[in-house]
Structures are given as structure tokens and as C-alpha cells.
Q: What sequence folds into this?
């Protein structure tokens, strides 16, 4: 019987190899299972950026701008993002950016985009600015914890390092039943039940 890992069905031998890699401390779970699946010729959803790699610090260009009033003076540019390997049955994509380390008790949603057409495979630098015209046609930016749609960059309280998790969801519906004022929690609820596979890329920021 196959086991599921991150929405992907994995053969028992592959899972044993995965657990061995973890036990030996050679690979993270995500990297191990992706290596196993790719070596077996299976398509695996991946998310990359020209602006940062997994575990890198995000630059000031991506930090929150001064107009938000949180004390940061960044460029508030959403990073360039690209993806490949969508599973069969994908009819759209959704993209989120979440800070699980925010001192709110429930994290902080920095960016929520849904209904990205299935033919789109990347978003350019700055696409998260609703006034830029760079967002993919047909995609919908949804209200973040800043209170409005669009990308809001990192600006944590001074001190500890925060993680900013960009997650791409391969969605089984062409459109989710949400609108621009839907809360991120409700979007997350819809994604939980309609995501076929997902991939994440984590950037760091410290102030």
C-alpha cells in the first residue's frame, strides 16, 4: 500500500529510503522524498526564485515599505517566483506567504493569491503590487493580515529571525469560491480541501 507525503503517493520502498535518509541526518524529508520521486521519473511540484534560495535572508527590496507605518523602509517588492511539475488534474494555482513566527498567536499572512491560471508558470518581481499590472491575468489577490489585497513584505519586531514561507498550491478547481475580501483563514480552508500538491520556499528576515 502506498503512503502519502505532501500530497504525493509514495511507494513503500521509497518511504523506507526516506526514513533511512532522515535517520542518518543526510536529507530533510522534503528533499529526500523529492529526490526519490524524481529519480523514479515522477513529476514533483517545485517552487524557485531568482531573488533568494531556500533558507536565504530576504533583501531590503522585499521588506515592508515605510508607508505601512511599521518602522521598516524596504521596497515592498514581492520576489520573482517560478514553478514546474504540476500534477495531473491541476486546474489553477494559489500562492501564499505566511510568517509562522509573528507574535500574534496565529502567524501573519503577507500575501494570498488564488485562481492563477494553469498555464502560468511564474510571477515576475513586483507582481504583488496591485497597481503594477504584473499579476497574471485572471488571478485574484485576496486580503492579507495588513487588511487589504497585495504583497506586504517582512517587518518583524526587532530581535529574532522570522521565517517567510512562500507556498504554491496546485489546485483541482479553476476558481476557488472566494473574493478579494475573503479572510486568509477561509482561503486556507478552501485550499486544504482542494490542493493536489504543494511546494514551499522559505526566506528569512531579521530586524
A:
Amino acid at each position: 500500500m502506498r503512503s502519502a507525503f505532501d500530497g504525493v503517493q509514495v511507494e513503500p520502498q521509497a518511504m523506507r529510503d526516506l526514513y533511512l535518509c532522515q535517520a542518518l541526518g543526510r536529507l530533510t524529508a522534503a528533499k529526500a522524498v523529492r529526490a526519490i520521486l524524481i529519480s523514479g521519473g515522477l513529476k514533483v511540484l517545485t517552487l524557485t526564485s531568482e531573488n533568494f534560495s531556500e533558507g536565504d535572508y530576504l533583501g531590503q527590496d522585499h521588506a515592508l515599505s515605510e508607508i505601512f507605518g511599521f518602522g521598516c523602509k524596504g521596497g515592498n517588492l514581492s520576489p520573482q517566483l517560478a514553478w514546474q511539475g504540476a500534477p495531473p488534474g491541476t486546474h489553477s494555482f494559489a500562492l501564499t506567504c505566511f510568517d509562522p513566527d509573528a507574535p500574534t498567536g496565529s502567524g501573519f499572512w503577507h500575501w494570498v493569491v488564488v485562481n492563477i491560471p494553469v498555464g502560468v508558470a511564474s510571477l515576475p518581481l513586483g507582481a504583488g503590487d496591485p497597481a503594477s499590472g504584473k499579476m497574471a491575468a485572471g488571478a485574484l489577490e485576496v486580503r492579507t493580515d495588513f487588511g487589504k489585497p497585495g504583497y506586504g513584505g517582512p517587518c518583524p519586531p526587532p530581535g529574532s529571525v522570522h521565517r517567510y514561507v512562500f507556498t504554491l498550491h496546485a489546485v483541482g478547481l479553476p476558481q476557488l469560491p472566494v473574493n478579494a475580501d475573503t479572510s486568509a483563514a477561509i482561503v486556507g480552508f478552501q485550499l486544504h480541501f482542494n490542493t493536489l500538491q504543494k511546494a514551499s520556499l522559505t526566506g528569512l528576515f531579521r530586524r
About this structure: The chain has a mean pLDDT of 87. DSSP finds three helices and ten strands in the chain. The first strand starts at residue 3 and ends at 5. Strands lie at 3-5, 8-10, 46-48, 81-84, 92-99, 108-117, 122-123, 140-141, 162-171, 195-205.
